[in-house]
# Entry
Amino acid sequence: MNVEIVSFGYLHAAPPAAHLTLDLRSHFRDPHVSPKLRYLTAEDEPVRHAVLATPGIVPLITATLLAVDAFAAGPGGGHLVLATGCQGGRHRAATVALTVAHLLTGAGHKVTLHHRDLHKPVVNR
# Structure
């Protein structure tokens, strides 16, 4: 299956059109609240570590992989768009997108990954 993954921030623009959207805003700790992590992104190991250590994230990633497999097994098969969103698109959404992309690629899916808002300025809230 061809899987297109888009990470984004709800504070920048409307969510992209997708078959499956993970809204990470309310249920998972936001690295933005840590001054040491606020200006870093998912490209930085401390952010990835903080996000992946958040309770519930790993089971969500596992469930997402199962959901992609379910879509792939269906008769419509060929292409799936998965969107991952958080407040600014720099931490949680991008880390989950990176992790899912890596795991899906390893499972034999053709994956494209786009971070819509990763390099946009930090949104002060």
Notes: The longest strand covers residues 2-9.
